[in-house]
Fold:
Amino acid sequence: MSGDERTGATPIGGKAKRDDVRNIAIIAHVDHGKTTLVDAMLWQSGTFRQNSVVVERVMDSLSLERERGITILAKNTSIHYKGARINIVDTPGHADFGGEVERTLKMVDGVMLLVDASEGPLPQTRFVLKKALEAHLPPLVVINKIDRQDARPKEVLNEIYDLFIDLDAEEDQLDFPVFYANARKGTVQRVLDGEETNLAPLFEAIMERVPAPAYDPDAPLQILVTNLGWSDYVGRLVIARVFNGNVKNQDQVSICREDGVARGKITVLYGYEGLERAEIPEAGPGDIIAIAGLDPIGIGDTISDLEKPLALPRIQVDEPTIAMVFGVNTSPFAGREGKFLTSRHLRERLYKESQHNVSIRVEDGETADSFQVSGRGELQLAILIEMMRREGYEMQVSRPEPILRFVEGVKQEPMEQLIVDCPEEYIGPVTQKVGQRRGRMLKMVNHGQGRVRLEFRLPSRGLIGFRTEFLTETRGTGIMNHLFDGYDLWQGEIASRQTGALVADRAGRTTSYAISNLQERGELFITPGEQVYEGRVIGESARMADIDVNITKEKKLTNMRASTSDIAVRLVPPRVMSLEQSIEFLRDDELLEVTPASFRIRKRILKYQERPKRGVPEGEA
Structure:
């Protein structure tokens, strides 16, 4: 039996197409319903039995994804429809995880663009669609959440057309089918006033609009590595797509790396059946597979024929824009709560992350025990810190800084497109706050429902610490999204935190008596009975200058009694900050100590006598 017969291929003018496979990625802005739609597709394709107990958003398998309600890592699954297999890749919707989307688009032949029927196209919608159009992938458009009370599907469809035109879409890409969906119910409509049906019309459109994988029957084996995984049973797993040729279990292959060609042997070959990996004897063009036995290997490498190795173009991703310094924990409490403490542990974990995550870059720092980690944004680096913390690592991290570049001697910095959605009454305070961070308003749209959408352009460093201020100004009702918008000239100094810190001036255990006397000085972060050390930041000062305080002071015991002496102390509850809020709080002379059990903000120089005495840190206006 020939290879063409085995794979169900149709030869077309020197090229062949595999008719029984379709590869599609679902792309959208965060929280527009991608993972929920994949749930419905899995149920209606018969992947789950009727009596199966399956959690919501089954593709979000990481604990962090479930807690935050967002997708962090792109994951693939497959369904069967009318004798064909549809491989589906669920992608993250947050701009910080754009590297996941970029490598995912190398695996597929078409995309399904999801847009919220109320919010319309947002920054990440623009980013993912731009990448898909550049890769010449045909789109299907699904306007989701049409059951929302504030849904405006007609206006949103016009905004989608405007976005396609703005991104210079080709004529055939503008001719996309449109579906109106309620992913939670698992229903779609071809027209707004039409009858709700199950997802069968969507499956039909995928089979009709997404091209079958094309390949060259005469080309050698070519498999592009798009992700890495791990199995406790077989070790390193390579997730990849077959572009040309057929691959069998136990085959000897070549690995085309950046630095040369190596040899390896495939020990186990897996295919995807629903959410499970299943061993298969052979895979052909268009298949998305997992391979064991090839190590070392990296994302972007090509697995090719042993005798005639031929590499595919490597995966290209956008440059990182934000950097943080990760270092060994040097506080007096180091080693009390974590398992992995040394620079060797940190180095291994960070460089391993850079192999898995194509948008993270790791470099050695200025000292032997520090590393500069660059990424797309604060959230991406915060997720990395949280994952390491849960694995038992201790570390200290610096304030995020933008990655600058010099072009012909002129300093340039990364810029961001910021889109704010807030009630009308907060337009003034929000515009003022963004203006203080060198932001410039580009557009303002009022949909007439009491909320307004504002679009700004500002430096990336202007967004550091902005989210907390923004939510405070809008009383928690505002929504903000941002997207990298190229480099521009240095925009000038930006004032960061306007308040100083309350700093412990000695080690010891905090007392209610000391806390009650210090409450007037500012807002505290700690509770009575906590251990502190000299140089630890225990609160935010009401003034611009840092204040060193004795948080361990005890009430003196005497024989004298007064009528008011034994009245109970009333304490204001402390401010409990999340990881992201702690990172936003940092100034240049501060570090965040991260352990599996706690976050502690501290001064870089712990000793009170050695620390520079100043009201405003250097470099801040």
Notes: Residues 1-8, 10-14, 48-61, 616-621 have pLDDT under 50 and may be disordered. DSSP finds 14 helices and 38 strands in the chain. The longest strand covers residues 410-423. The first helix runs from residue 3 to 6.
